[in-house]
Structures are given as C-alpha cells and as structure tokens.
Amino acid sequence: MKGTLKKLLVGTSVAVGMSAISAPAMAASLTNVDMFGDDYKVYGGSDPVGALTDSDRYSHVELNYLNESLADNSTGFTANLGVDEIKVEGITQADWDGDLSDQWIADFEEAYPAIANATYGGVNIGSMISGKLEEAIGRSGDPNVSYMAKNDATGEIEMDLIGHYNIWDAPWMNSYKTNPLFGSVIAQLEAETPLLQISEIAKVTVNGDVQYAYGFSAEETGQVAADAGEGDSSSHTGRYNIALDGTPESESVPEPSVLLGLAAFGGLFAASKRKNA
User: Fold this and answer.
1) What count of Cα atoms within 13 Å lies in the side-chain half-sphere of residue 33?
2) What is the Cα–Cα distance from 202 to 235, expressed in whole angstroms?
3) Crossing angle of helices 256-276/2-22, nearest 10°?
4) What pLDDT digit, counting tens, does each position of 93-106 carry?
5) Number of domains observed in the structure of the chain
6) Using the 8-state DSSP alphabet, how is residue 99 labeled?
7) What is the span of the domain harbouring residue 186?
8) What is residue 264's predicted lDDT score, i.e. its pLDDT?
9) Within a 13 Å sphere around the CA of 14, how many CA atoms are in the beta-carbon half?
10) What are phi and psi of 260, to 5 degrees?
11) pLDDT tens per residue, range 211-243
12) Does residue 237 belong to any structural domain of this protein?
C-alpha cells in the first residue's frame, strides 16, 4: 500500500510539473504608462491610463484628437511592456516621406488588388489613389489605441486600434460619394469591394526601433462612438488587431511548479535506477 501511494504521489507530482511546463506563455501588459501632450480623448474609460490598461478591448485613447495634421503630431504615451520600453504616437509627414509610404501602398495593393488594378475611363484607379494619398493620409494621424500586450515566450506584441469596420460607411465618405468628379468612381469601387477596411496608423517605437502599426482587416466591436455625429453609425465599429516585434521575456528562472515537477521526475528516475541495479 505504501509503495502504491508513493508511486501515485510521484506520478501526480510529475503530471503537475509537466502540466506547468506545457502551460501557455503569460502575456505581459502595459505598465508605467505616461502620457505626453494633451491633445487626446478617452472613450469608454475614466482616464487614459485606465483605458489603455483595463481588460475592456473597446475602451481606448484617441491621440491627436483635435489636430490631425501630419506636421504636428505631438501627443502619445510611453510605457513598459515587460522588458520592452515603448513609445506610441501618431505618424508625421517625415514618417510618410520615409519608408512608410512605399510600405503602406504595397500592403494596401496586396489587401485590395481589385481596387489597385481597377480602371475607370481608361485610368488606373490604383495609381489615382496613390496620387491622392498625400491628402487622404492626413486622416490617419490620430490613431485610437485600445490595447497592448506581449507574448512572453515569443516577444510578439499584440496591439488593437479602433476605427471604422467599413470605410464606405464613414461619414466623411459622403462628400466623395456626392462629388461630381469622384462619385461614379466611388460607386464602382464600392460595388466591386463592398467591405473596405483600413485602420489609422500608429508609430510604435520599441527599444528605440520604429515600427508602424496599421491593418486592413477588422472585427466588429459592437460599439459606436458615444458622441458620434448625427447619422454616424460607423465610428469605432471596427477593431484592428496588429502584431509587432518585441523582446521575449527571460526564461532563466522557472516557475516553482516546474521546479517541483523536475525534482519529482529526477526522484522517479533515481528510484528506477536503484530498482534496476
């Protein structure tokens, strides 16, 4: 009986230890959040730090709320994400004039080849859009940041940006749809691609290295901006989930349960050796 009980206890210890070893990696969350600049607005939270660190994937902070100009995006936040030091802000004209424009256009064309390759009146619409981006990209300077966390094992940073689930439904699209020059083109594009998803752009600096967060695929939030204008049922309806590069957390100190499991496994191995001696 004692031998059976001992084997059962050892087997249970090994199972607990192995279970701890195979458990999914913990996710580091934002700490030491410090806002800089004062041009921001909080949605779904009492303050910016709370909106960025709570468990609500909708509550968020809009950076550069009043001034979307790419010449002066001076609001954002710094924080720690595990061992990583991060800084999040809107893009500037210098960002767009650097590597961002080519990168963004290439990603847009890959996400929406039907739009990029479409023609209207013998004109390539993709080229026409690229030529108009200098004007349109200004709308991307005020990202709505809702969530950031990191996979401790891989270092991958997960980031949510809140925006329109379908750009065609955005209220500012109405001026293009009713414009005599663009209306028929917009109608063609909307018919060919009825779901158009484009996030705003956040500039994320991780340990001094700049990355740009944006996406072309969204999930519905089930929410609409509380102070959206009359007839606006589109603002904040989409959540864009974006992956960025971060640093894996140190694995030099195992969890206590892992240590116990390894000790039990070692004892079991030693007992097996004595039995076979």
Assistant:
1) 20
2) 18
3) 140
4) 888 888 888 898 88
5) 1
6) I
7) 26-253
8) 52
9) 12
10) -65, -40
11) 999 999 999 999 887 666 555 778 899 999 999
12) yes
